[in-house]
Design goal:
The protein is built from 11 helices and 7 strands. The chain is of the alpha/beta class and 316 residues long. Helix 4 (79-91) crosses helix 11, helix 6 crosses helix 7 and helix 7 (156-173) packs across helix 8 (192-207).
Length: 316
């Protein structure tokens, strides 16, 4: 213990060096994808989450769910996320939800997938059961850095194009016809909202269709991709401070810069903020909580699913 105290400065310096190197290396996966390095992954064939429409009616709502920064893969692994998607599918007839794209990888390679660091991430995943280790913080850090790459004007377009191609590939693989002009809705949680915002203009051009984004507690920058959205719906709980990160750190979000893409979209009425009550960002008090309840007795996950369903059904 005495040795640890005596060498605390050196250890902190080592941690800072590791964090700096990690941040500097974070754009390399997107740059490698752009250069054509590595194995090109085939489109995922993960099962669809859908409730059969009555009387074999066609699918009317194509939704892509983009998970938050705490996941190691695109598939929703937590019971809260799965409960939200199921509640949404029950409320919206003719709904198809695609959720097989890992949005924090240019090649759609999950952290537990075929990558050189997979063994390390598997160990981190096992260590999650030991809450005192806080091993999941490394997952958050890694994925947050990829959100930073998405918002970077130098590397962001490359990263966003790669994500858009994976999303388009997945949608077509699940039956979407590019000539149908059926609107696509991106539902994104936390940092995934910025990734979705950056990918929106490329996805619109690839599939030639209208794009909407529903941000659930999302961190949104002044990304010019907002001009490609028909609507941006921001679901924001009063106890959630995370969405304010984008509003504070990116000047294009400040009201002073009236000509920024964000402020133009706001004046045009294309940004709609929906208060969600006393919800926090995640965990027991989060948007997908199964136990926390609003004053009227509705659980958080039920209320969030109902609001998103109203958006999809044109009630908002």
């Amino acid at each position: 213990m005495i040795w640890l105290i005596n060498h605390m400065a050196e250890l902190l310096g080592l941690v800072l060096v590791v964090l700096l190197l990690t941040a500097l290396l974070s754009p390399f996966e997107a740059l490698g994808w752009w250069a054509g390095w590595g194995r090109q992954l085939a489109p995922s064939r993960a099962p669809r989450l859908t409730v059969p429409p009555p009387h074999d009616a066609p699918i009317r709502h194509y939704v892509v769910y983009i998970t938050g920064v705490g996941n190691l893969a695109g598939e929703p692994r937590g019971r809260r996320e799965r409960a939200f998607l199921h509640a949404l599918a029950v409320r919206v007839p003719g709904l198809l939800v695609v959720h097989d794209v890992f949005p924090y990888s240019a090649s759609n390679t999950a952290l537990l997938g075929p990558r050189w660091s997979a063994r390390f991430w598997r160990w981190i995943d096992r260590m999650r059961v030991h809450a005192w280790l806080r091993a999941e913080l490394l997952v958050y850090l890694r994925n947050i850095l990829q959100v930073g790459v998405s918002s970077d004007p130098r590397y962001g377009p490359i990263f966003s194009l790669s994500v858009a191609q994976q999303l388009a590939w997945s949608l077509v693989n699940h039956g979407y016809r590019p000539d149908s002009r059926i609107p696509i809705t991106l539902i994104a949680l936390s940092g995934g909202a910025q990734v979705a915002l950056g990918a929106a203009p490329f996805l619109r051009d690839l599939l030639d269709c209208p794009i909407r984004l529903i941000s659930i507690g999302g961190v949104l920058t002044d990304d010019p991709g907002i001009v490609a959205l028909e609507r941006l719906y921001r679901l924001h709980g009063s106890a959630d401070r995370v969405p304010w990160i984008g509003a504070m750190l990116w000047p294009g979000r400040w009201p002073l810069l009236r000509r920024s893409p964000w402020n133009r979209a706001s004046r045009e009425g294309r940004i709609i903020t929906l208060p969600m009550g006393p919800m926090g960002h995640g965990g027991h008090n989060g948007y997908f909580s199964l136990s926390a309840r609003l004053p009227d007795g509705t659980t958080h996950v039920e209320h969030t699913a109902a609001v998103v369903a109203d958006i999809l059904l044109g009630r908002v």
